[in-house]
Amino acid sequence: MHLFILAAAALLGLSAAQHNPHTKHGRTAMVHLFEWRWADIAAECERFLAPSGYAGVQISPPHENIVINSPWRPWWERYQPTSYNLCSRSGNEHELRDMISRCNNVGVNIYVDAVVNHMCGASGGEGSHSVCGSWFSANRKEFPTIPFTHWDFNDHKCRTGSGNIENYGDADQVRDCRLVGLLDLAMEKDYVRGKVADYLNKLIDMGVAGFRVDACKHMWPGDLSAVYGRMHNLNTTWFSGGSRPFVFQEVIDLGGEPITSREYFHLGRVTEFKYGAKLGTIFRKWNGEKLSYTKSWGEGWGFMPEGNALVFVDNHDNQRGHGAGGASIVTFWDPKLHKMAVAYMLAHPYGVARVMSSFRWDRHFVNGKDQNDWMGPPSHGNGVTKPVPINSDQTCGDGWVCEHRWRQIKNMAVFRNVVNGQPHANWWDNQSNQVAFGRGNRGFIVFNNDDWNLDVTLNTGMPGGAYCDVISGQKDGGGCTGKLIQVGGDGRAHFKISNRDEDTFVAIHAESKL
Ligand code: QV4
Ligand code: CA
């Protein structure tokens, strides 16, 4: 039997294992702590993420990057590597290592945002204007710290006049030309593959659980396969022997382009951008969309196969108009809708879920475009990123939004753990924007996104008893701080949700039972 399983695993190939996030203690959801300092992430793992049941953290790129002063220290400078030294606005290598160990020690996995398609922009100049002082020349395409020289870039392969990607309808230029002017690495070269693999392996050996691989649409699947094939197994201090790194690849596929997500399925998971774009449209009730249409949410909506998907309501790009998704994306700027959309995602079984944790910036729209979409994290005048202070009510200060700490979202991360592995069940809808569904007999959630009250008795599939709603409050000792839901011996319960409630949804689960 054992041999059979081993043989089957070998047949599936190593890559099948790169779809597994290796989460621990029955935890399921990850959170993107966008632009957080390593020291703050370490503290957050210990004081909040582990006790709240979060499975992992996506961290901002840890490599050294170009310093951009105009605009002043934009968040996106971190997507322009100048060396693979582990030194950034989030902290140095020592702080990174300390964070990875401390998070692992409390069972929270670290997933690294790996920017390996390119180095800095072609107009990045020459000098030591890297966050930790490494010298480089964008003009001569030299990055001696790695080292990469002009031989390691793709320009000879690119056939557009500008050297940039001009037409997403041409797969060759999407892979071989410069993405918004960023110096494009020649990943077909064994030398480049080796340097990228060394970078990833250093992080794997330090204890990370995997990677969000940036800009995969712009890399050939065959090149990625070669690089992934060189990755070490995860560090056995924290993971079982033979564990492959979890890989989730950023490919924006909303349809209509020659490059599809499908080309990357065998290599790892892929970001499902249709998910947040559609969910936003539904909760905003645009284009005639209704929540009741989500009965077949998931593959039934034309999303990728469930085992391939990494899902999210918003990400660091589309919450500020970068990348794809457009105006429908719901972010913390629309808190009521955002909480509902995130709760829907966390209640639903489709995909590996990622929660966004943002910083605030001064939004300033001119003709529909945010002039300040570049603004970096809360920082001191000298560009140093500010720590994340925790207020007495458990929210964050100094411009850090901390959506993952909002009671409704945190409690739904717990809900997802409690119902893990249970089937989508007991669907109900009013043919409009009131819907309900359960997860086996372990959890049940009811949404009212109509402009009128919800007042209905539903089959929850749950054992009879008194349950605390984990949205308006939660279980606290022998009582509930919010609504109490009484489930009868027949599994039926009465729900009442005013459209004017602060939150127009209710959720109960096995562990919120009194
Ligand atoms: C500018 C001009 C170019 C010109 C170039 C000359 O616009 O026409 O050729 O100068 O050097 C920044 C600037 C951009 C600038 C570029 C190079 O915004 O104007 O080009 O730097 O200096 C982030 C930001 C980008 C930013 C980039 C690098 O979103 O604005 O570019 O970091 O700092 C596609 C991709 C997808 C991508 C998405 C945004 O398929 O992969 O666009 N998403 C990922 C990340 C994203 C990141 C990158 C990829 C690049 O999630 O955050 O882009 O690593 O859909
Ligand atoms: Ca490329």
From TrEMBL:
Keywords in alphabetical order: Calcium, Carbohydrate metabolism, Chloride, Disulfide bond, Glycosidase, Hydrolase, Metal-binding, Signal
Organism field? Muraenolepis orangiensis
The protein's matches in CDD domains, at most eight in alphabetical order, are given as: AmyAc_bac_euk_AmyA
Coiled-coil annotated spans: none
Molecular function terms from GO: alpha-amylase activity; metal ion binding
- Cofactor requirements of the protein: Ca(2+); chloride
Q: Name one GO biological process term.
A: carbohydrate metabolic process
Q: Which Gene3D superfamilies match?
A: Glycosidases, Golgi alpha-mannosidase II
State its Enzyme Commission number(s). 3.2.1.1
> Where do the Glycosyl hydrolase family 13 catalytic domain residues begin and end?
28-416
| Endpoints of the signal sequence | 1-17
Q: Which family does the record assign?
A: Belongs to the glycosyl hydrolase 13 family.
Query: Which positions fall inside the Alpha-amylase C-terminal domain?
Result: 425-513
In terms of InterPro entries, this protein maps to: A-amylase/branching_C, A-amylase_C, Alpha_amylase, GH, GH13_cat_dom, Glyco_hydro_b
Instruction: List the protein's name.
Output: Alpha-amylase
Please write the reaction equations for the catalytic activity of this protein: Endohydrolysis of (1->4)-alpha-D-glucosidic linkages in polysaccharides containing three or more (1->4)-alpha-linked D-glucose units
